[in-house]
Amino acid sequence: MRVGEILLEHGWVNETALARALRDQQQRAGAGDRLCSLLVERGQLDPDHAALALAEQHAVAAVLRRHLDNRDHELAAMLAAEVARTHGALPIGRVSNGDLVVCVRDPSPDLARTIASWIGSPVVIAVTAACLVEKLIDETYGGVVEASVDIDMNTGPITIPSDLGALTLVELDDHRVARDPSQTDPLIGRRSNVSSLPPLTKNSRR
User: Fold this and answer.
1) Mean pLDDT throughout 145-155?
2) Mean pLDDT for the stretch of residues 102-124
3) Residue 27 — pLDDT band, cuts 50, 70, 90?
4) Are 129 and 34 in contact (CB under 8 A)?
5) How far is 60 from 77, CA to CA, in rounded Å?
6) Higher confidence at residue 196 or residue 162?
7) Which of 76, 173, 60, 190 is nearest to 126 (CA)?
8) Which of 6, 24, 90, 158 is the most buried (most CB within 10 A)?
9) Coil, strand or helix at 147
10) For the ranges 7-16, 17-26, 152-161, which has the lowest average pLDDT?
11) Helix, strand, or coil here: 58?
12) What letter does residue 177 receive in the DSSP assignment?
């Protein structure tokens, strides 16, 4: 069942708001807009209802606002920033047996295996609206930083900060410096039994 149908079935969104969001989503195809996120950002859908609807659709646990507000901030260090951003994933706590709970925007068995392999231990995948988890990822790991270097071509050797890696200047003229293309950065509970996560534990170990 589509997430919009789930939202309507539970009465979590009205038909007019849903129809408008679906229309806008189609008109902006390719922009990466997600239905639940559109509705949440417009104030037409409660974030917890969005999480519950997505959990019902994918048959995983839902991450509610209380889970995000009370997450264990130290656990974010267990996942590399690049992996977190690429997969829209953020470690937030542990369940009673010690398994790490990872909040994601797109739950799937493949993603669970990928994250488990990075962390080196079993994980519990749970879902919430993409707009929420992406905002927390930016706050936790920091946004993508675009570094710049001021260069005076009239003064001896050029020193490039080591944290920027190796840079090559090409096609240098009086108007601009074109960057070498090689430096471009590459940028599921069941419907009748959906539930949110149980209370999470902090600083517990397997």
Assistant:
1) 44
2) 94
3) confident
4) yes
5) 24
6) 196
7) 60
8) 90
9) coil
10) 152-161
11) helix
12) -
Structural domains for the chain: 3-141 (3.30.300.160)
Retrieve residue 56's tokens: 């019902």
Tokens matching residue 53: 């609807």
What is the torsional sign of CA 47, 49, 53, 55?
positive
How many angstroms separate the CA atoms of 189 and 13, rounded?
Answer: 20
φ/ψ of 169, rounded to 5, equals: -90, 130
Q: Are 52 and 117 in contact (CB under 8 A)?
A: no
Tokens encoding 37: 């996120």
Average pLDDT of the segment spanning 155-173: 38
- Let me know if 94 is exposed, middle or buried by CB neighbors in 10 A (0-12, 13-18, 19+): buried
Per-residue model confidence as pLDDT tens digits over 83-102: 999 999 999 999 999 999 99
- Is the Cβ–Cβ distance between 123 and 100 less than 8 Å? yes
Residue with token string 């009086």: 174
User: Which residue matches tokens 């009239």?
Assistant: 154
Q: C-alpha distances in angstroms, 62 versus 112, 120, 177, 193? A: 15, 23, 49, 12
Mapped onto helix, strand or coil, the DSSP state of residue 40 is helix
